[in-house]
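Support request from a user on the community tier.

User writes: "When I paste my structure tokens into the form, the page sometimes reloads and wipes my input. The last time it worked, I copied everything first. Here is what I submitted, just in case something in the input itself triggers the reload:"
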């Protein structure tokens, strides 16, 4: 395991696939235990992400590599956070449809803890370990490769019996979001804002009303995707300019 996560240049693609596979395997085991034992998936997935959180934290702490993966706790100027504004607009946009009327206090407490772990685990794996490995090839290879691997579990989830329009949106959004987040971590080398975004995005998706007509849902999806596309284009040119300046 130590060799698998080493920082050398050997087999970065293979290691990235293995890490993604192990992540999917642990989450799948959580789902399987839920089905076999008749336990709520809320419990088994919570335990799966809790285990992953501990594994990642212990590994990173042992290697003293928090800063290497973008866990920068130093204070920054307020203007340094402006780059994240479109990201958080995308995360909060679904709130326009209102909150779910079936939520209880227990549900909210559960979501806060569960989504915190999901955000930490997925960002650390895909915008931390996997992206750093693939950067051994190149920045753009890392952006595209980590985004595709990040989208894989979301694609599998989206194909789970949902209507075609919602499935296509989730797949498109997962790919686009992966690219945006990968470009942001390369540009800023700060993973904490991405974890906060991931937490807010997942939580908002879980607490908003599902009783929304198809036309409203379509309009909201188009708006979010449009903001994301414009944001990705801006980040692409910003990073390209920065790389060109470094090569001069």
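"...and here is what came back when it finally went through:"
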């Amino acid at each position: 395991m130590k060799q698998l996560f080493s920082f050398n240049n050997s087999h970065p693609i293979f290691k990235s696939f293995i890490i993604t596979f192990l992540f999917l395997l642990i989450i799948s085991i959580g789902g399987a235990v839920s089905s076999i034992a008749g336990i709520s998936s809320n419990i088994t997935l919570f335990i799966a992400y809790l285990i992953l959180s501990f594994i990642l934290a212990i590994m990173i702490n042992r290697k003293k590599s928090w800063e290497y993966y973008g866990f920068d706790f130093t204070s920054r100027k307020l203007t340094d956070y402006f780059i994240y504004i479109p990201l958080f607009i995308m995360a909060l946009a679904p709130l326009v449809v209102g909150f779910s009327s079936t939520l209880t206090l227990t549900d909210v407490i559960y979501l806060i803890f569960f989504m915190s772990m999901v955000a930490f685990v997925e960002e650390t794996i895909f915008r931390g370990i996997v992206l750093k490995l693939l950067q051994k090839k190149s920045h753009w290879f890392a952006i595209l490769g980590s985004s595709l691997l990040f989208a894989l579990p979301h694609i599998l989830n989206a194909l789970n019996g949902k209507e075609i329009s919602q499935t296509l949106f989730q797949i498109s959004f997962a790919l686009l979001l992966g690219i945006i987040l990968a470009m942001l971590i390369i540009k800023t080398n700060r993973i904490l804002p991405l974890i906060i975004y991931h937490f807010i995005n997942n939580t908002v998706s879980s607490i908003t009303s599902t009783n929304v007509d198809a036309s409203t849902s379509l309009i909201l999806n188009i708006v979010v995707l449009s903001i994301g596309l414009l944001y990705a284009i801006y980040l692409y040119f910003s990073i390209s300019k920065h790389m060109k300046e470094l090569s001069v």
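Agent notes: The reload is a front-end session timeout and is unrelated to the input. The chain has a mean pLDDT of 89. The chain has one domain: 12-71+79-241. Escalated to web team.
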